[in-house]
Backbone:
């Protein structure tokens, strides 16, 4: 593509991957748009200086990049009417990787006894924002039904929000901040 603008969307419509046109207000566009927003938030999280250091947090940065790639595949599937033109992505294996990472982090966290109010450190609050966008992405996907948002995609996005919740807690503890418990 030599130009970023085409003028084809100036009337409020956009193309899906198969070339068919839909309104920019279509639920499918809303779902993959939310996935795109989540990809951007995870990019912001990855850019935090904590994730640039060597060691465990550097590994988390690489894992977050894998999540961004998974979300790109998810958005691609949501944006296509023709599944034969899509590259395969194993959402079940990606979900298992999320669960393994959750278990590793959660083993190092104190038990949770109440709701947590996002607060300090800033990186933790950013992760909580990503978590809420992840939940919103999931809601948009549910509206589409399982013929578009398959069960493995829905499980993946649901587990991703769990991962982001645990990661936010993990970053709070790693930065030696106290969780702000809602009582």
Residues:
């Amino acid at each position: 593509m030599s130009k970023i603008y085409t003028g084809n969307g100036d009337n409020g419509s956009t193309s899906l991957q198969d070339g068919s046109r839909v309104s920019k207000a279509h639920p499918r566009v809303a779902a993959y748009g939310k996935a795109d927003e989540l990809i951007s938030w995870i990019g912001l999280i990855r850019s935090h200086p904590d994730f640039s250091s060597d060691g465990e947090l550097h590994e988390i940065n690489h894992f977050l990049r894998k999540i961004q790639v998974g979300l790109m595949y998810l958005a691609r599937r949501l944006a296509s009417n023709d599944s034969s033109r899509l590259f395969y992505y194993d959402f079940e294996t990606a979900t298992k990787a999320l669960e393994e990472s959750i278990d590793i982090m959660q083993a190092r966290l104190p038990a949770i006894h109440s709701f947590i109010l996002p607060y300090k450190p800033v990186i933790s609050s950013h992760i909580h924002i990503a978590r809420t966008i992840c939940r919103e992405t999931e809601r948009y996907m549910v509206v589409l039904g399982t013929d578009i948002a398959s069960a493995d995609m829905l499980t993946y996005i649901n587990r991703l929000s769990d991962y982001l919740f645990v990661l936010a807690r993990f970053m709070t503890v790693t930065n030696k901040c106290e969780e702000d418990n809602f009582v």
In short: The chain has one domain: 23-80+89-182. Residues 135 and 161 are 6 Å apart (CA to CA). The chain has a mean pLDDT of 87.
